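Entry 12.
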Amino acid sequence: MEAIRKLTSVRALALLAWLALLTVSAQAYAQSMREVLGAGDSVRITVFRYPDLTTEARLSEEGRVTVPLIGEVSLKGMTPDEAGKHIADRMKSGKFLVNPQIGVTVLQARSRQVSVLGLVTRPGRYSLEGATAKVTDVIALAGGLQPTASDTVTVVLNRDGKSEKIDIDLPSVMQGRDASKNIEVQNGDTVFVHRAPVFYIYGQITRAGAYRIEPGLTVMQAISLAGGITPRGTDSRPQLRRKAPGGEWKESTVGLLDPVSAEDVIYIRESWF
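Predicted 3D structure (tokens):
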């Protein structure tokens, strides 16, 4: 009896999991059917019971596609369900089919785009494969972050004519500490990756340039980040230029264990020996 009860419990849990999956799938399908079609979208137009009439097409800039039997038809601004009914009405009114059943499926939604700007590898506008995508997904589409990108990303959501700005801490999202912040973006939204605070290092250094400031960074660590000192250089008495609160630049000699601040400029001198 105990074994039967356990088996029944397992089956019940499996049924609940299946029902939950079915609910999520149904919600996703319903959402896709509410999304309107636009220029560049690729669709499959299925004529049930007439497979030879099924076709795949991309909406033109005017939102038009060519459908077997009825020719060009405009689907721009319609949901897939509305588009199917519209095509069916055209076929019926033209007396091509008596009671046509038409299904329209979105294959690729190029009319739904988000902008990914700032310090990503390939800034630009990117098409959403579905109705929405996560912030991390669209950053990945843009090639990921540049080395001097900030941990903070600003997302501008455009909903019903209103804009809302949300700042997201990427490390907390990626490490799972606050996955809820990995929000979904939709058509017309913008993701902006800020520039991180940086320091500059040049002179007798292997890889002169700008580098991210990390918490507690010292001059020695800054030298290491830049690939170390060249054979002609010396780590004795590095020179540092730092902007004072009043805005003027001040120069000083620093030690290897001194802290580095944002916008500091470190100069590694040439050795005399």
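Annotation: The radius of gyration is 29 Å. The first strand starts at residue 42 and ends at 47.
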